[in-house]
Amino acid sequence: MSRLYLSLTFCLFSMLSYSQTEFDRLMRFGKELFNKGDYHYALEYFENARTMDSNSVEVLWYLAETSRAYKDYRQAEVYYKMVFDKEETLLYETSLLQFGLMLKMNGKYEEALEIFKKAKKLYARDKKGYPYSKSKKEIESCLYAKSAIENSKVIIAPYPGKVNTKDSEFGHTIFKDGLIFSSMKADSVSSNEEVYSADYRTKLYRAKNDSIFQLKDLNVEDLNAGNGSFSLDGKRFYYSLCNERLENYTCKIMVAQFADGKWSKADELGEIINAVYSNTTMPHIAEINGEEVLFFASDRDGGKGGMDLYYSEIKDGNQYGRVKNIKALNTPDNELSPFVRGNRLYFSSSWHDGLGGYDVFYSEFDGNNFNDPVNLGLPLNSSANDLYFFQHDSSSYVSSNRMGVLYSKNPTCCSDIFKLDTLPPPIDTNGLIVAKETLAELNKRLPVTLYFHNDEPNPRTRDTTTKVNYMDSYTEYRAMLPKYQKEYSSGLSGQESEDAKEDIETFFQEYVDQGVKDLYQFRDLLLEALQEGKKIQVTIKGFASPLAKSDYNVNLTKRRIYSLQNYLMQYNDSVFAPYFFGTADNGGELRFKEVPFGEYEANKLVSDNLNDQKNSVYSRAAGLERKIEVQSVEYIRDSTQNALPEVEYQVIDLGKIDGKEKIVRSFTLKNPYDFPLEIDSIRVPCHCSTGKIEKMILQPGESTEVEFTFDPEGYDGNFVRSIYIRAKDIEEELRLVLTGEIVR
What we know:
Structural class: alpha+beta
Oligomer: single chain
CATH architecture of the largest domain: 5 Propeller
CATH superfamily of the largest domain: Glycosyl hydrolase domain, family 43
């Protein structure tokens, strides 16, 4: 072997050794800075390490984790995807979950939904583990977000004045017309950099009349201070002190007396509140059932996971009762920043259905229990982190790192305080409050799609009505999930069997459960419109899977539509009943237009084999076809306007026909108004059909016949054929339908 070869080999190994040593050094320093919370400079080390080894999954993972900690969700999304593409959770179990969470934090709800469904299936190997539970929950959350994001036009503005800066600000309360807030600042860091490091400290401040000053009597030099709340009498101020160097604590709650504009020396609360070896923070004082109560967040033993919400009654200003966990609201994730107004407890959570990382929720307290949480919605929530919600007078405040905050480099790095002023209701020229327009909001919620088990309700009958309430039908259907999983996975084994079970569970979660949630929102908006005296018509369309004969399915879909009407009729002690019967004192009225199409528009690929129930009954595809849809909401016009004629039967089902002759059927139109009704035109989309009407002008109470002709030549199988009637000066059309099945 030549000396030259030996020399080159030695140099190569020396260079590789040096490179590996330098790579290890960069990674070590980067990890040290990451652990200290100095994410800005940690990123620099990891990025330099990546230039030396672009294939290192470890580097990509730390770039992803550091970008997320730095709140650069866009960059974190890119890195988590790269990690998962390389290792598919074999090295970093949560890479796919975190990728989905970053998509959601960036407002990409459709993409995030698909990733969470994939993650749920992947993590199903450990159904008790956090990644599986979180993925399953985030599917619901993305479905909520997709629905909510389209329905807000209200804009929230940054807090006015000089409070918000390129650092982070968090609002806490308004006291004597001044905002008390905390801000994270570091004198040793230049203003054009964003760094979360040991040099940064959150301190308490007060802002009033464009003046901002630090509450020096409460702040401690080496500790973080924040989260302030006054006692009911305004004489005590509760707040948090936090630091990893505190003995036996990271965060604990302090209290200082306030009198004559001066603060006393702060004392820490005892171990009843500040549990040893735990974080206890975010105090808020409220009145519940006539008692002064301290609410706070803590990760003490006995919680559900992360930070939980707790409360304790206060006696004589300094005696604290037994600490109680608010189990109805706490989850495996964090619940933070409690605030109470009236009977509502507001808080932030990263678990319940939300738009982003942390959303603000509220829970109604009925005197004994906290009810299910409700998302506060847009614009107070966003796809980022929204915390420290509070209200003062008619305004609401939230601290958020959403797009639009002040920043130097990373557009979502730092929180600002936002303010939403609640506007008074508009007043008309007569001095009366103008009713809120809800029809547009109702139609935004559509279609509301509700699903059914096969041949339900009232199986094996040809009835067109039912006594079944849809919610009872839904409850029974939902309880059948284990049977659906068993039947649909029959004949499969191993991973294929598990995948089939996950697919069915996701179908119930994504479609069946979501339909009920959409129904609740639609129901409330519908009731609000009726209570304002509106006359409303709701159009409902029915479907069925192809398992039964066509004429049977038309009646089945009618029963399904009827079950929804039963639900509304029986809801909340029959609050809708006066509107059904037209007896409401305010003149509000509710009517339904039914379009029971049977299975004629169903997926023709769905099995109709009675002996193949795995695919014809228990498959995801079959389940998607057994539904009704609330498709549109419109005002019922009064007698001073032109309107559409009425028709007793909008759909005529022909059943099975041989297709040898033209089909001719008649629909009877009636003018129900006290003025003449003029028909403008008939629209026939298909060359295979014709429509002819006897009279174009109908006097009050007068009827006429519409002749509908369909030529089935050249057609086979199920069909739906329509003609459309238009009245003069009305954009809406009346649809008349022939359905059936051609069997040659």
